[in-house]
Write a structure and sequence with these properties.
27% helix, Trna Endonuclease, Chain: A, domain 1, Protein Yojf, Chain: A, 488 residues, 13 helices, alpha+beta
């Protein structure tokens, strides 16, 4: 058994702890937030969490390796628990360890380049300053011409983000006075490299010629780098399109209709292969699945879901009442979680009900925008009066990669359109799609466009007709377009 003084010393010896309770709940604590007192022959264990200060009767404490097991009881011994205090590595130390591990991976990429290209001379190896997840390697080719290489050392970043970082870094190192770099190698694992190759094909000729994509082939030992051939837009459309699965009819279950009746002006429905998702101003709050002919439903926001039945219907009504209060343009508390969550989905839900708020010449696809048939979620798909297809991407926060994300959606939709799949699916209720490339609309509140938006928009091939729609900042109250700009 550990004495009070020994327990104090052990707690003070570690700066950060993790408190683990019987129910599995955890809470981080500093040593200074833990109080161990001894008076009148009774010991107490106290700590501060987000609900305030708590004091428990301390029965006894034991040491298990680096952990402390503390047997405590509540007032009048009505409740007894065993707390575990687990040492935590300080955040600064964790960050340093992570940076060191990533720098090691960056040097492994540099070694891979050196092994595959013996004439290349390695220079500086560093991590990107903003997120530390990209290796930045400076080289010289066989003729001592400056060269650069970049790799996502986590292999988890979306290709749009990798491409934006690559272009910005190349812009910076190509404009310096001493030893400017004009060429960049983007190195990636096979799957990510293929995605980057497709995005690379959507750039202007000048941008495309300054960047090369390399895939890591790990079949041989040691691994080798394979340069992927650059593709033009025309070559991108030679690939086989994914299978297009669209339901013959959109039928709403009786349960979903009953839920919609609670707030018909605010609730919409998204159909997927797994059933129906009901959203209140874009926020999912109920789900319905039909299994073996029986409708089953759940209620709740986020991961906190409960079975919906006659006994819990009142809980659903209370949830909808809360949504009506807090997920409204007139909400009393603009910091409330229900108000702040999923703003882009909220904007989408407004335009789904009335797309003419964005452009009076648009007609939404009644099928596509209710049924998601692609893995990547395109916000809205519409048709202009002249038959021109329009891909609509919505943003409510600055997003540097948004331009390339929209461009990649354009490529996927264009592949479907050029093969006639969208026409055969009859997405627009008999309206024919014009045989011209789809347009891209990116709509966002005026101050929510990233400062690099125009720069990246001008990096895209002229075959993509991109429009910027600036909305009034109070879009929750009323969607108003205050500016339209074309980039081409």
């Amino acid at each position: 058994m550990v004495t009070t003084e020994e327990l104090r010393e052990r707690v003070a010896a570690t700066e950060e702890w993790l408190l683990v309770r019987d129910e599995g709940r955890t809470f981080p604590l500093l040593a200074s937030e833990i109080e161990i007192s001894d008076s009148d022959g009774k010991r107490h264990f106290g700590f501060v969490d987000d609900k305030g200060f708590h004091s428990w009767r301390l029965n006894h404490a034991e040491v298990h390796g680096t952990e402390l097991a503390i047997d405590v009881a509540g007032a009048f011994a009505r409740r007894q628990e065993i707390f575990r205090l687990v040492p935590r590595t300080p955040a600064a130390e964790l960050a340093a360890e992570l940076e060191l591990a990533r720098l090691q991976l960056a040097n492994e990429v540099a070694k891979l380049v050196a092994d595959n290209f013996p004439a290349v001379r390695l220079g500086r190896v560093a991590l990107s300053a903003d997120n530390g997840r990209l290796a930045q390697i400076e080289l010289q080719d066989g003729d001592r011409v400056p060269l650069a290489a970049m790799a996502d050392i986590t292999s988890k970043l979306p290709p749009e983000i990798v491409m934006t970082h690559a272009i910005l870094w190349l812009e910076r190192i190509s404009s310096r006075k001493k030893k400017p770099v004009r060429r960049l190698w983007l190195i990636a694992e096979k799957r990510q490299a293929r995605a980057l190759q497709k995005l690379h094909g959507l750039l202007t000729d000048q941008r495309r010629s300054s960047i090369a994509i390399f895939s890591v082939d790990r079949k041989p030992d040691p691994p080798r780098l394979v340069e992927l051939p650059p593709r033009t837009v025309r070559e991108l459309f030679r690939e086989k399109p994914p299978k297009l699965i669209v339901p013959a009819a959109l039928e709403t279950t009786r349960t979903a209709e009953r839920i919609i009746g609670l707030a018909p002006d605010a609730v919409d429905i998204v159909l997927g292969r797994q059933g129906e998702t009901l959203r209140f101003n874009g926020l999912p709050f109920a789900r319905v699945r039909t299994m073996m002919g029986v409708e089953k439903a759940w209620l709740g926001t986020g991961s906190d879901m409960h079975v919906l039945n006659d006994e819990t219907w009142e809980q659903l009504e209370e949830l909808v009442a809360s949504l009506k209060l807090h997920r409204s343009s007139a909400a009393p508390n603009k910091r409330h979680k229900l108000y702040k969550t999923s703003p882009e989905a909220w904007l989408e839900s407004i335009l789904r009900r009335n797309i003419k708020l964005l452009d009076a010449n648009l007609v939404l696809s009644p099928i596509y925008n209710q049924f998601r048939f692609m893995r990547e979620k395109i916000d809205l798909l519409a048709l202009r009066r002249d038959g021109r297809l329009v891909v609509i991407e919505l943003k409510t926060q600055p997003d540097r990669a948004g331009v390339f994300q929209a461009a990649d959606y354009w490529r996927k939709i264009e592949l479907q359109r050029r093969r006639g799949l969208l026409d055969r699916a009859n997405l627009f209720g008999g309206r024919q799609i014009l045989d011209k490339p789809a347009l891209v609309y990116i709509a966002a509140p005026a101050w929510s466009f990233h400062r690099d938006f125009e720069y990246f928009a001008r990096c895209l091939t002229p075959e993509i007709e991109l429009w910027r729609f600036e909305l009034h900042e109070a879009w929750r109250e009323e969607v108003r377009v205050i500016s339209r700009l074309e980039y081409r």
